[in-house]
């Protein structure tokens, strides 16, 4: 895999992480529904942290959610998922910077950098899944309340923050996939065929000792 594709994946992840932060801070996760010929002078909108009302003059009054335990369970879960996504994204950015092929960190080998890039890609994908679950869960509740004929409260529609969250999840997961492909298993070194040589030891020298002159072997004849 080329370093250019890896760098593009990293930039996509960083952009998606920043977009996640923007989505979390956005005020318009849900907007009050305006339909029919009735002129509505007050528009309501909410996010995970506060509820606001905007008058016809453009002046907004916001009320922060006071008690965490008094909130609906899905709002608490969406908060936790978005915060976990930001933490995972920050950790992934650090690992990806160390694992990119275009960065040098001491004598780090290519296999180690590939493993770091793979870990960063997996964490980025998990971060994107957290964002996707949070915004989809919140959107499902908004749609459910809107279509419920017995719901007596204010009916809302999907806001800008949800669309930003979906875009952030798509960028982070796609960029994380690019980073995961940068880790390749190094092929095993090919075994070279060659000739084997058997080295024999040098022949030993045999020293013959002659018998003394006064000793001779005799043969017996019958």
Automatic annotation (TrEMBL):
<feature type="transmembrane region" description="Helical">
    <location>
        <begin position="118"/>
        <end position="140"/>
    </location>
</feature>
<dbReference type="InterPro" id="IPR006187">
    <property type="entry name" value="Claudin"/>
</dbReference>
<feature type="transmembrane region" description="Helical">
    <location>
        <begin position="160"/>
        <end position="180"/>
    </location>
</feature>
<protein>
    <recommendedName>
        <fullName>Claudin</fullName>
    </recommendedName>
</protein>
<keyword id="KW-0796">Tight junction</keyword>
<keyword id="KW-1133">Transmembrane helix</keyword>
<keyword id="KW-0472">Membrane</keyword>
<comment type="similarity">
    <text>Belongs to the claudin family.</text>
</comment>
<feature type="transmembrane region" description="Helical">
    <location>
        <begin position="7"/>
        <end position="25"/>
    </location>
</feature>
<dbReference type="GO" id="GO:0005923">
    <property type="term" value="C:bicellular tight junction"/>
</dbReference>
<feature type="transmembrane region" description="Helical">
    <location>
        <begin position="74"/>
        <end position="98"/>
    </location>
</feature>
<comment type="function">
    <text>Claudins function as major constituents of the tight junction complexes that regulate the permeability of epithelia.</text>
</comment>
<keyword id="KW-0965">Cell junction</keyword>
<dbReference type="GO" id="GO:0005886">
    <property type="term" value="C:plasma membrane"/>
</dbReference>
<keyword id="KW-1003">Cell membrane</keyword>
<dbReference type="Pfam" id="PF00822">
    <property type="entry name" value="PMP22_Claudin"/>
</dbReference>
<dbReference type="InterPro" id="IPR004031">
    <property type="entry name" value="PMP22/EMP/MP20/Claudin"/>
</dbReference>
<keyword id="KW-0812">Transmembrane</keyword>
<dbReference type="InterPro" id="IPR017974">
    <property type="entry name" value="Claudin_CS"/>
</dbReference>
<dbReference type="GO" id="GO:0005198">
    <property type="term" value="F:structural molecule activity"/>
</dbReference>
């Amino acid at each position: 895999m080329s370093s250019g594709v890896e760098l593009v994946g990293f930039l996509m992840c960083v952009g998606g992480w920043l977009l996640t932060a923007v989505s979390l801070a956005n005020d318009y996760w849900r907007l009050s529904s305006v339909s029919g010929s009735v002129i509505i002078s007050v528009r309501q909108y909410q996010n995970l942290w506060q509820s606001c009302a905007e008058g016809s003059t453009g002046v907004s009054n916001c009320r922060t959610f006071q008690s965490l335990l008094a909130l609906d369970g899905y709002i608490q879960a969406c908060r936790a998922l978005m915060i976990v996504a930001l933490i995972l994204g920050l950790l992934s950015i650090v690992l990806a910077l160390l694992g990119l092929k275009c960065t040098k960190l001491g004598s780090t080998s290519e296999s180690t950098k590939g493993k770091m890039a793979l870990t960063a890609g997996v964490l980025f994908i998990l971060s994107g899944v957290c964002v996707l679950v949070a915004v989809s869960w919140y959107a499902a509740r908004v749609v459910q309340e809107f279509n419920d004929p017995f719901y007596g409260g204010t009916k809302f529609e999907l806001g800008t923050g949800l669309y930003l969250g979906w875009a952030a999840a798509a960028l982070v997961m796609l960029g994380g996939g690019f980073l995961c492909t940068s880790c390749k298993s190094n092929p095993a070194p090919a075994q070279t065929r060659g000739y084997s040589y058997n080295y024999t030891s040098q022949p030993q020298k045999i020293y013959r000792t002659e018998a003394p002159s006064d000793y001779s072997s005799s043969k017996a004849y019958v």
